[in-house]
User: What shape does this take?
Amino acid sequence: MKSLYGILLAAVVLAGCNNTAATPEVKKETEPGKVSKTAETSDILDELVIKDVKVGKGDPVKEGDTCFVRYRGLLVDGTEFDSNMVEGRELFSFQAGPGGQVIEGWKTGVIGMKEGGERKLSIPWKMAYGEGGSGKIPPKADLYFTIKLESVLRAGEEATVSRTILKPGTGAAVKKGDKIEVDFIGSLLDGNQIDAGKYVFTVGEGEVIPGIDAGVIGMKKGSKIKLRIPPAAAFGQFGKEPTVPAGAFVIYEVELLGFK
Assistant: This one.
């Protein structure tokens, strides 16, 4: 993840990131590769330009929400300087709004997006890496991003597990202290499988991640559920090598085989 942190995480290794607040205004879009520019020429962009390619579903992103995205960044001449839209690259996460540790154009530009949406951001250099540039990004460079919003962790819901019943069961309901056997498949948001198999554990004893411990309560024999588990209720800020990256959402499908 060297390139992600080298390009986007302003608080860690960025230099010259401008934090001046900006309100997005939509105007005629400037496409990368259509014009040329050097640091000595006048600005091409004087404000953030937002273009929704695909509108997602659900509640819009607000300040303080954590966004999990795929992205591609281009310079004005069409040169790609960074991307995680390739196999094997992790989703990138950051907080929308003033608290985010990314360039101003990103913190502002994702506000209002919905899960599953795709947006193009044309970011003036003053909302990017400023007069100094960074790495592959030259001084006073306007930047052009395509961002796909894969998931949103809402402010205040950092440990909230989403549960969907895929198949009902019969009999007694699982409660804390029960010893149960389950069949499960675990994956990341991008579909990469991280775990699978049968497992026996005692509910509420910390033998599984908190999201599963809480999610199986109320299940009945033969039932199957899908759990969408945020990092705080999964593998936390450090993840689990080599399959789960730091700060990752996980998805588990769990079937209750029986009580032990």
